């Protein structure tokens, strides 16, 4: 089944946004919506609320509100898992060893500045798409069987 996920190009990778968008398309994702946005610290805290209280939360919020980001709603067969496979593990140094060639290996700089984000489950994808595109109807896309 076709599903949607939320992808973000983070501040450190915005200079490579066109290159990353090409990779997205070459991997068979459809871009349903996209926008460039500069989050306030409050909005970044709200978006990452599930990480509230973790030791990296303040630096994550400061980073994600430091400059514009590229936000995409992507659709594909099993998009959530497919996008997370393409981006690779959170830590780019680990990504380099276990998933060479993944987006975080290629474009990530460190654990915080790891180039891209992807929703981790169906529920977080719904929440994150609504957060970034408040007028969205978020339901699985019906496909012909
Ligand atoms: P992301 O997939 O956007 O989800 C949460 C983000 O928090 C993650 O990518 C990283 O940017 C950041 N993050 C997660 N774990 C750590 C960590 N141990 N140290 C610093 N930043 C982290």
TrEMBL record:
It comes from the Eukaryota. Residues 2-140 form the Nucleoside diphosphate kinase-like domain. ATP binds at residues 10, 56, 84, 90, 104, 114. The active site is at residue 117. Belongs to the NDK family. This is Nucleoside diphosphate kinase-like domain-containing protein. It comes from Clavelina lepadiformis.
């Amino acid at each position: 089944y076709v599903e949607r996920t939320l992808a973000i190009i983070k501040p450190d990778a915005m200079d490579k946004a066109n290159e990353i968008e090409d990779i997205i398309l070459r991997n068979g994702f459809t871009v349903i919506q996209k926008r460039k946005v500069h989050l306030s610290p409050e909005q970044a805290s709200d978006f990452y609320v599930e990480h509230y209280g973790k030791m990296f939360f303040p630096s994550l919020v400061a980073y994600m509100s430091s400059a514009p980001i590229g936000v995409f709603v992507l659709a594909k067969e099993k998009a959530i898992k497919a996008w997370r496979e393409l981006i690779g593990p959170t830590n780019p140094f680990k990504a380099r060893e276990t998933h060479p060639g993944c987006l975080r290996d290629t474009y990530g700089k460190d654990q915080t500045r790891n180039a891209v984000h992807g929703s981790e489950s169906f529920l977080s994808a719904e929440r994150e798409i609504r957060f970034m595109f408040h007028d969205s109807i978020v339901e699985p896309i019906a496909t012909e069987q």
